[in-house]
Automatic annotation (TrEMBL):
Stated name of the protein: SGNH/GDSL hydrolase family protein
Lineage: Bacteria, Bacillati, Actinomycetota, Coriobacteriia, Coriobacteriales
SUPFAM superfamilies listed in its UniProt record: SGNH hydrolase
Gene3D superfamilies per the UniProt record, alphabetical: SGNH hydrolase
InterPro entries tied to this protein: SGNH_hydro_sf (IPR036514)
Amino acid sequence: MRNQKLRARLGVALTALAVFLVVAGLLAVTSWASLPKADAHEEGTVDATAHDATGEKNGGLDVLFIGDSEAYSAFSPLEMWGESGFASRVIASHGQRLPYGYTLLREALATSSPRVVVIETNSVYSSFSTLDPSLRFLQDHVPIFEYHDRWKRILTRDLAKSDNSRAYLRGFVVNTEVKPARNVDYMARTREVSVVPRENQEYLRLMVDYCRAHGATPVLVSTPSTVNWSTPRHNGIARLSRRMRVDYIDLNRGRHKVGIDWRTDTRDRGDHLNLSGATKVSRELSALLSRRYGLPDHRGDPTYATWEEDLDRYRDAVGE
C-alpha cells in the first residue's frame, strides 16, 4: 500500500514536471519567434524609436537621451550633429516610466558605449504602480508578454534577424504645429520643493549606477515646458542631483535657460516644444555638452558618412 502511494505521488510529480517543461519550452519558442527582427515599427517593435539604439551600425554613439515625450520633442540628434558633430540618439517613448527607461538603458548599453547619458527629468516624477517593476521584469525576460500581438506579422522570412533598419531621425519627432502657451511665468521664485517619490529615486539610482558602471557620465536635463516644469520641481531635482553627485542642467532657468518664445515654439500650449523650440534646445545643449564633456566632432569622418546624408535629408524635410 505504501509503495502504491509513493508511486502515485511520484507519478503526479513527474506529470507536473513534464507540464512545466512543455509550457516553458513553448514560452521560449514563442518568445523567440515573436521578437521583432529589426528595431522598426513595421517589424512590430513596441516603441520602435525607443529601441533604435540597437540599430546604430555606422560609427559609435557619443550621447544617449532617455525620457518620455518631452525628450523626443526637444532633442534632435541631427541638429546637434550639424552644430557640434557628435553622434547621439533619443531612446524615448510616450509616458515613459523609469522601470521602462532602465530597460531601454540596459538594452542600449549592451550594444553601444556613449560617453554621456542624458536623462530628461519629467519622467523622474512620473509615478508607477508597485506592479510595474514585476511586469517589466516579466516582459524583459519572456518577450511573448510584450509582443503577444505580433503573431499576425510573423512570416517564414521573419525568422531570420533583419539588419537593415535605421530610423534617420534617430528618435526625434518632428512637429511644426504652433499653439501658444499662456502660463509663461511658470518658474516663479520659491523655496518649495517637489520631492521625487522614493521608488522613483531608487530606479534613478539604478540608472545612474548602471551608466557609471559602463563608463558613461549620467546627466539630468530639464527641457522647457510651462505645463510639466516648475521651480518646486527644479528644486527637487537639484537636491536629488547633489545627493547622487550627478550633473544637472535646467534649460528653464538660470544661465542655461533657452530663449523659448512661448508664442511660437510650442505645439500644445506649453506642454511640448515644436520644431522651432527643439531647434533652439538642440543647438544650446549640443554646445554645452560638447564643451563640458569633451565630445568628439565626427564631421568629415567617413565612418559617419550616413550622418551627413541624413542631415541633408533632415534639412530638406524641415526647410532649413
